[in-house]
Amino acid sequence: MPVHRGHSLPAASLLVAALLACVGCGGAADVVPVSGVVLYGDQPLAGAGITTQPIGQGTENPGSGSFGKTDEQGRFTLELVTPAMPGAIVGEHRLMINPPATTAAPAAPATQIVDGVEVFVDDPQTRRAPQATGAWPASFSDGSLRLVVPPAGLTDAKISIPR
Questions:
Q1: Which residues form the signal peptide (predicted)?
Q2: Class of the 29-100+136-163 domain?
């Protein structure tokens, strides 16, 4: 039986090329600009980390998350993790806000009363730690918050954290 290979190799090559060209076709998510402000009480929150993760609707991998960091005015702009580009995927996201990293200030010197006079004691073992100004709400960093990114993008997101 004769084997005809002359025409089937170019046809197979064309088919493989077409299949490779379509890898990922139709599954690309829309990425749109997302920016806004984070307030702690009524004040801008500088240095807070923001991360989002799309919530899949019937898909195991809804796409890449986004991240950002607030500036001195509490403003942020999200950037997609993969591929690295500005924006976030359209749809509902889990939203996590992490408090600004703080550098621990040295503890205040302790005082003692000696012969009726208040005396500062410069002994690190007796120093008082500075008072905390409030606890960070767990719900802001546990993924229970949601952010909905509309198809037109979001340039005025306002996230308020109560004190």
A1: 1-28
A2: mainly beta
